[in-house]
Specification:
Oligomer: single chain
CATH topology of one domain: Mitochondrial carrier fold
Helix content: 55-70%
CATH architecture of one domain: Alpha/alpha barrel
Number of strands: 2
Strand content: under 5%
Distance between the termini: 71 Å
Length: about 400
């Protein structure tokens, strides 16, 4: 009997991990939550240091960018009644990042390191769910149709997924910023949006999308290409079908570092342009917004080429661990769901295996040492016959009542 084992032509392509879109959403939302919880304190400290250095920039009529390492969110500086809405304006004297983190936790409470987290989660989780789910779906479609070569599939899928996610989230980001900046009710926001669409058209809901895509699309293309290349190399070297947690963490950190370095000039331009759009459209500042190409020319002319790489170290410190936490958590839950689905499928196909164990006969010629139930069904059934044996003690036949001993 010969048992053949099915083999795949591409054993490491997509690693055979196929989960449902709902499971992809759960995996990505868990990763976004973990990343936000772990990385938000760094951004809170950064904003507090900026507010201490330039307090005028955080007065009414200005805005700042809040980023947890996954998504950037435009936040307005408002004079709210609640002290929690002015966490960025609290008095402080910090000497550096670690000194600020220790003093905030000691004098303001440990929860102050997560100030501004709820509005970030409102945007980060939906955006990340759309982004990662779209990436997996696009990668599967591109791979099945062979649109491009296998090495270019992550680049195309990552770029398309980022465009789709940013396009879906951009109107929600504008609505959230209006509510935060002007303290409007939902009915007032809807009325303001209707007036804006009548005056400027429906495309006004996506104002500011260009600066966002300017950095995020190249970042996604470089990141996914780097990550998938390292992932394929590790899998082909080790012969395994999936990465371990620390391997996914390291590959995500390296890929995020490389992508952050390559796209830093786009990040500088995008930050300045988004702040200007926020001051003009969302806060009420009448300052004339400069076009993207004019910002590039002014930075290069007035500040030099070095200015396009400003803030490299803080960006790497935030982006690298964010990418590592996000992708390792996502991969962990993706393989968790894949293993769970496989076990349920096995139980459905062989329900008795979950309750009974098949005995294995090691020293028998009737069955192989290890065989599946399907293999046993095709084996010849042995015929067991009883052989006559001569008893060691012959049995005396019972005497009949009619038989009498002869005298």
């Amino acid at each position: 009997m010969t048992i053949t084992k099915e083999t795949s032509d591409r054993p490491h392509h997509f690693e055979g991990v196929t989960i449902t879109p709902i499971q992809q959403m759960i995996s990505s939302s868990t990763g976004a939550l973990m990343t936000s919880l772990l990385m938000t304190p760094l951004d809170v400290v950064k904003i507090r240091l900026q507010a201490e250095a330039k307090p005028a920039a955080f007065s009414k009529g200005h805005c700042f960018l809040y980023c947890n390492g996954l998504m950037d969110h435009l936040c307005a500086c408002v004079n709210g009644i609640s002290p929690s809405s002015q966490w960025y304006k609290r008095p402080s004297q910090f000497k550096g990042t670690f000194d600020a983190m220790i003093k905030i936790a000691r004098y303001e409470g440990i929860t102050s390191l997560w100030s501004g987290l709820p509005p970030t989660l409102v945007m980060a989780i939906p955006a990340t769910v759309i982004y990662f789910t779209a990436y997996e779906q696009m990668k599967a479609v591109i791979g099945n149709r062979d649109v491009v070569g296998e090495s270019f599939q992550p680049m195309l899928a990552g770029s398309s997924a980022r465009v789709w996610a940013a396009t879906c989230i951009s109107p929600i980001e504008m609505i959230r910023t209006k509510i935060q900046s002007e303290q409007l009710t939902y009915s007032q926001v809807l009325r303001a949006l209707r007036d804006m669409m009548r005056a400027n058209g429906i495309l006004s809901l996506w104002r500011g999308l260009g600066p966002t895509l300017l950095r995020d699309v190249p970042f996604s293309a470089v990141y996914w290409t780097s990550y998938e290349s390292m992932k394929s190399y590790v899998l082909s070297t080790t012969g395994r079908s999936n990465l371990k947690f620390h391997e996914a963490f390291s590959a995500g950190a390296v890929g995020g570092t490389f992508a952050a370095f390559m796209t830093l000039p786009f990040d500088v331009i995008k930050t300045r342009r988004q702040i200007e759009i926020g001051e003009k459209e969302l806060i009420g500042n009448k300052k004339e917004t400069t076009a993207t190409w004019k910002i590039i020319r002014n930075i290069y002319k007035n500040e030099g080429l070095k200015a396009l790489f400003t803030g490299l170290f803080p960006r790497l410190v935030k982006v690298a661990p964010s990418c590592a936490i996000m992708i390792s958590t996502y991969e962990f839950f993706k393989h968790f769901f894949a293993g769970k689905d496989k076990s349920l499928t096995d139980v459905a196909q062989h329900p008795m295996q979950s309750f009974t164990k098949t005995p294995v006969l090691q020293d028998s010629n009737m069955f192989p040492p290890r065989s599946n139930l399907s293999d046993i069904e095709h084996l010849p059934v042995p015929i067991i016959t009883s052989m006559p044996q001569s008893p060691s003690h012959p049995i005396k036949p019972e005497s009949s009542q009619n038989d009498k001993p002869q005298s």
